[in-house]
Amino acid sequence: MITGLKKEGLIYVVDNHRLYRDIIKLALEKEGYTVRLFEDGRHVLKALAVNKSFRGSMPDLIICELNMRVMDGLALLDKIRKHFHPQNPIPFLFMSSSENNERIAAAQARSGNLVFDKRVLLHPMAEWFTSFYSNANPYYPFCHEFDQTIVE
Q1: Fold (topology level) of 10-138+145-150
Q2: To which H or E segment does residue 20 belong?
Q3: Is the pLDDT higher at 80 or at 124?
Q4: Rounded mean pLDDT of 1-29?
Q5: Which residues, in sequence order, are CB contacts of 36 under 8 Å at separation 6+?
Q6: How far is it, in rounded angstroms, from Cα 108 to Cα 135?
Q7: Which contacts of 124-127 are long-range, i.e. CB under 8 A and separated by 24 or more positions?
Q8: CA–CA distance from 133 to each of 126, 128, 143 (Å)?
Q9: Which residue, 119, 123, 118, 148, is CA-closest to 135?
Q10: What pTM does this model have?
Q11: DSSP H helical ranges for 31-122
């Protein structure tokens, strides 16, 4: 359980690596949270704009990769803080596999939270999933294509 976050809270997970998104989602849903997944910051901004326009549910927390191709986590944080509830900002938690201490320090300073290291928390789990399952396995939890050659 995440301290200070209501059990049925809505969490946005933003990462350009699908496997990491899926692992985080499984863990958070097991704890009772509602999770929405996003590949990059642009999609988050679109979802927030729709929620704001239609008075929908805003996330209680955003967990975001610091380094992404389309829009990095710092740019996303800045846009959210500027355009969505600036007086009551959405809590932001960064994750990264980078060793760029300057970016990590900037993320910590701007979010007010520590940046967690995906290499320590998620990479071993992702390696295990990859080695345990294969795309040819019909029970692979993240495979959307079923390999018909293994069905008799």
Answers
A1: Rossmann fold (3.40.50)
A2: helix 18-30
A3: 80
A4: 81
A5: 10, 11, 12, 13, 47, 59
A6: 37
A7: 125/23, 126/19, 126/20, 126/23
A8: 11, 8, 10
A9: 148
A10: 0.76
A11: 41-53, 73-83, 101-111, 118-121
